Amino acid sequence: MRRPALIPALAAALFMAACGSSSIPPSHFVDGYRLGTETSCAPVVAPHCDLAIATARDVLLRALPQARITATSMAEPGCNPADHTVCIQAGLAKAVFVVFDLSDGSRHAIGLSCTGDVFRQDGALEQHAACQHADLAAARR
């Protein structure tokens, strides 16, 4: 009769092993923000990466008009279970960072809140995708 008690214990052990696995992407800091893995286009804003990059470029160039961008990447907010940083993306708006490498060797992360295209129930486009600058303070150290 002890066999049923073994199943929950085994399930709990597997869950704990999965939580401690390396499936959580590594995080790093840029401009004081914890970022996940950098890619050319963050999945949470695809297929609107060009819109996100253009929005972030405008924000960067307003703050640093002399900036010369040498490379661009995107990252979602980083998560780190070791210090209890948890990232959950829910709702219509998604948080994303655009990271710019500049010719002077510096890196800058611009936080955005982006929404995708919104369609009515009949399938007609109601609102185009949009991104706006966002502080994303929860991702700061």
What does this structure look like?
The protein is an alpha+beta fold and 141 residues long. It contains 2 helices and 8 strands; from the N terminus they run H-E-E-H-E-E-E-E-E-E. A 4-stranded antiparallel sheet has the order 3-4-5-8, with helices on one face. Strands 1-2 form a two-stranded antiparallel ribbon.
Which SSEs are present, and which pair or pack?
Blueprint: H1 3-19, E1 28-30, E2 33-35, H2 49-63, E3 69-75, E4 94-102, E5 107-115, E6 118-119, E7 125-127, E8 130-133
Antiparallel strand pairs: 1-2, 3-4, 4-5, 5-8, 6-7
H/E series: HEEHEEEEEE
Overall SS class? alpha+beta
What are the low-pLDDT stretches, counting only 5+ consecutive residues below 50? 8-24
- How helical, in percent, are the residues? 10-25%
| Biggest sheet overview | 4 strands, antiparallel
Describe the global form.
globular
Number of strands: 8
Number of helices: 2
For the largest beta sheet, what order do the strands appear in spatially?
3-4-5-8
Mean of pLDDT: 79
Cα(first) to Cα(last) distance is: 50 Å
Radius of gyration equals 19 Å
Strand content: 25-35%
